[in-house]
Amino acid sequence: VQGLGCGRIDNRRKGGRVKELITANDPRIARFNAIADDITAKCQDLRECYHPLLGGKRFMTDAQLAAKLGVSRRTTQDYRDKGYFPYYRIDGKILYAEDDKQSFLSRTDCIKTGAKITPR
């Protein structure tokens, strides 16, 4: 909104007449600032109280991994079966750690051929 940073909004109608002038002293601006301060404080509280689960590791499904590697889900299963890629089975669901994806790519010196990544 034009002029919000300087505490002034000038809404004009057709014909150039001022419809309403809002200054920094307007109660709506004070209320907006109070709400923004409250949101900032709550975000800070969340940031200080956040304790990530599973040691802070982030996980992805085989579909997400396949999309990131540019391969099919069947290929991710082949990598898993051949021991190329570590995985976790949690309650019957196969998950891959994001950190393992990076180490896999750097460790295997992969080359991308078409839609398939072939470990060397």
Task: Tell me about this structure.
The chain is α+β, with helices and mostly antiparallel strands and 120 residues long. The protein is 42% helix and 21% strand. The chain has helices at 27-49, 62-69, 73-81, 98-108; strands at 9-12, 18-22, 59-60, 88-90, 93-97, 111-113, 116-118. A 3-stranded antiparallel β-sheet has the order 3-5-4. A hairpin with a 2-residue loop joins strand 6 and strand 7 (116-118). Helix 2 (62-69) crosses helix 3. It is elongated and about 75 Å long. It starts with 8 loop residues before the first strand and ends with a strand. Mean pLDDT is 78; it is low at 1-5.
Short description:
The protein has helices at residues 27-49, 62-69, 73-81, 98-108, and strands at residues 9-12, 18-22, 59-60, 88-90, 93-97, 111-113, 116-118.
Q: How many individual β-strands?
A: 7
User: Nearest-angstrom radius of gyration?
Assistant: 27 Å
Helix percent band: 40-55%
Q: Main sheet: which strands, in order across?
A: 3-5-4
